[in-house]
Batch of 3 targets.
Target 1
Amino acid sequence: MTHAPAGLRLEIWGARGTLPVAPDDPSRFGAKTCCVSAEAGDRVLIFDAGTGIVPLGNRLHAEKRREIDLFLGHAHYDHVMGLPYFAPFYDPSCRVRIHAGHMQDGKTCRELLVDFLRPPFHPVGLEKFKAEIDYVTFHPGDRLAPAPGVAIETAPLRHPNGAVAYRVETGHRSIVYATDHEHLPGTRDETLERFLAGADLLVYDTTYTDAEMPLFKGYGHSSVEEGIRLCRRSGIERLVLFHHSHKRSDADLARIEAQAQADFPGAVAGRPGLCFDLAPVADRLPA
């Protein structure tokens, strides 16, 4: 059976890191933590389950979306704290596949989540989910195929307890979600550059600036300037600044965004509601 190439629609639901708070209330850049959705045809792909997954889940439930894939970058709280409040988990007509590949202690995806959702830290566990749930454990470097015509490449990132980058490819379009990664100042990450090469869009960890990096060595995060360098070296035209510090005010983020855009016009600070529509290349070719 031949499947027509699908385009990609990327939407940001939460772009903060560490804590779901912001100095400004309300904030132009939002306070919700990491969650990004990518739609390829009728398939919904979700990256991370921070507090941004809550409004996303409410929308998917209202739209009666039944087939969903969730990919965890890793399981630090800011990336999973919204998970038990994801509405489709409680709909018996839904099928959700949860993928995790960052584990360093030999746990499976299901074991990881059982350990997270248990008393006394959370009142209910996985037994309360009503949807059909598949727990998928993989290793960074594996290639995943969540739907016909959609492929996802994976790669390890440098972060305490491990993390995974995802590259979604369909219709000759590709986006990369790579957050919670610490680059080594003064060096090139050629392995990551190869993973990114030729992508249309990069969502990247820009928690700090280059000037701040020495103050936070070992924290597992990168800089705005490194995101720009990676895009230039990998031939990427669009950069989404992501995992904003919960200490950044709107004025701080607006200043950082303006400086990034002066250096690299394709840069934009992530915020809830930010969308990108990438048509399949075949749709843009003459008949």
Note: The chain has six helices and 14 strands.
Target 2
Amino acid sequence: MLPTVWLLGTSGVGKTTVGWRLLLSLGERSVRAAFVDADQLRLADGIPAAQPELTAGGLAALEHGYRDAGAQLLIVAGPADDPAHLARLLPGRNLDHVLTVHLHASDDAIVERIHRRGWLVELAQDAVDYARSLDHGWADITLDTTSLGPCEVAGRLVAPAMRLLVQSRAATPAVSRPARDADMPAAVVVTGPGGSGVSTVGFQLFRKLARHGLKVGYVDSHQVGFVGPRPRAAELAGLRATNAVSVAAAMTERGVHTVVLTADPPTARRLQGALAHADMYWLDASPESLAGRLTARSRGGGPPIAGDHRLGLGDGELAASIAASAAEARDPALRPRHAHVIPTDSRSPGQIADTIVATVAIVATVATVATRHARSPGQGDAGPAT
């Protein structure tokens, strides 16, 4: 296993933001690290596997992709209640090569941050309650982030992370590459120009397919491909595709039948070549729509995203981002072969996801089977008596 810095704590203490800043800070010091938010590895529904099992499977699946990309160290942001819980998340791994960092903050700071980001604000009190239940004493490092910014917290972790790397370098063997089952899940790949809402639509699609009774998982390829000082670079498209397929395969081993994958256009084309069966969807948008969505994103609209490169853009940077997305939308060569084109102007992410659901053949099959099973032998087509 790669030597690992594990950032733990409740929602709102800054795990993901600090992890991202630590990734960049290490890159400035010529340490090529990888970063993943563990929450991204356990998005599956309709299967008996517990969240720790999904996280453990996802982390194991990512190991070789990160190593092949030159990663020397892994940074994970995710819940870990105690040493026993961490051991379940990293089964068979030497925990001497894991630096645990417990981030915490005052109750008021946690609530304020969750409300400020405007995502799952109804769970703010749950986050506070979880924070109170955690033991501060078992982690290697404990930091109070109440009055510290993410850059300052990350700065305090650079030296311990580099010491971990030196201590682990000679003693950490590479794990063997697991054999991949030839049977991959049915895949639905959602892509499109920047600002078309790919990740938001993909997550909505995942939730809707789950409500249709599918054993379904969701993988945002960007979130499993952060490596090095330029973690969003176009040349990492191959890594993003490799890691997304690996996590999808790990979900399959735990009972998932269908996986929704979201990707930028270069990664989507790689996914199309790597997956035997994939329905491809291109989200189409006008320049005006893209401009409106990217402007809203730059001002904090939408769900929080690790390493959001559009958040806080200045006028000139925002204009360049809008122009780049408009160019992507106009270039037919970027679209995967035989992709379904879905217009998105003046439509919510939920409405766009509904359009995709209506075209996914497996949904109709599941619905038909469920209807047949619900009927008793004597009712025929009349439906159940009321």
Note: The mean pLDDT is 89.
Target 3
Amino acid sequence: MTDITRLSAADLAAKLASREISSVEATQAHLDRIAAVDGDVHAFLHVSDHALDVAADVDRRRAGGEQLGPVAGVPLAIKDVLVTTDMPSTSGSKILEGYMSPFDATVVARSRAADLVPLGKTNMDEFAMGSSTEHSAYGPTRNPWDLDRIPGGSGGGSAAAVAAFEAPLALGSDTGGSIRQPAHVTGTVGVKPTYGGVSRYGAIALASSLDQVGPVTRTVLDAGLLHDVVAGHDIHDATSIADPWPSFAEAAREGARGDVLKGLKVGVVKELPDSGFQAGVASSFRDALAKLEAQGAEIVEISAPHFEYAVAAYYLILPAEASSNLAKFDSVRFGLRVDVPGGTVEDVMSATRDAGFGPEVKRRIILGTYALSAGYYDAYYGSAQKVRTLIQRDFDQAFASVDVIATPSAPTTAFKIGEKIDDPLSMYLNDLTTIPANLAGVPGISVPSGLAEEDGLPVGIQFLAPAREDARLYRVGAALEALLVDDWGGLLLDRAPALLGGTR
């Protein structure tokens, strides 16, 4: 009998459409999987009480002959940064413990309209500040490949849920790599769309000029299917792009079946030498490039001289915007309130923020407030924005000569829980290759490229494309995925340890 939880979202959708499997059966299978393994993984902060009711409604309407969308009835996990009316929305923080939103995030509303079945809310670093999901106020998520290791961050819960077969689809958010880096360390696919391509309305803001919502899945086609659901203009988001988008699922199908690699120019940044990466990560990256080249792609060395300043610029821009965005958690309007007998409003606010925010959030608020303070604004925040412009120009120059840029998705494989928690700089450098895309607003995708020889853990390759050329990433990502699936005899997750049902 088919293990429903092992099906790709595309295959599951086909079986649902043909009524070979009901949405109730699919949803129950994933709820059972969550019950069986999430005590170890801790991917979910909240499991929906309504999932089976939603699934039953989809089945009823399908049986009645209603024409439903391409992913109707497929279960979905939702990062807890996205507000929902029927489940708590905490953003991984004690300051929002138990908070119920009066509205759905736009991407959640669109998911419901497409008849996806919300399974629950996934764990994350508090307010998306972190690269390991160790900064969640509700405890760390663990990597299904090795429960002693991190699943990446800030969206480690979404990536772990997909990798552990607890959900076929998940929504995440990516401010500096929070979709792509977890995909890298869990053997999943993660996409950061073009800035403005997917609505941020209802995504609890970290850094408004950097945040972007996107899909986390097990295949490139599945990512395209979910991206198709959530993409498009939203009048509630002032940064939303009004132009229509092509079908990303169709772009993935073209990549998997067509000769899209022939003549493709793939840029490799000469300022990112192998010496900056774990040996197994660098080796997997070179092997993936060789496969592309064997199919007719041209590997072109490009220069992006300002990429090396991206991390420094990012960690001035992000804390500055975060300190402003998090000012609304003030004990007055909503969320946690710590009363101080006889105290002033300022006393209550201070006590609440001290009790409600974790150490990493406090660190970044302090950094951001300092960077924005009188006498330092131009020297820090203003200078970082100038570096951001130079990075955008690096991308413009590069894309004048190449179709996509390729990098390793992160410098290392998953490190052990606790290994870097007291070393913020080392933690921040996990986003070395992902941050430039957020600073420039261009789209990026991480696709599994193999296992590192040192530790047998997953490695991903990142492709970046010009703004609004997300479909190009799906073609290239799916083309490489098809080559690797042929070599591996299945997805990378098929080679995972026993928790995932693999054979490693």
Note: The first helix runs from residue 9 to 17.
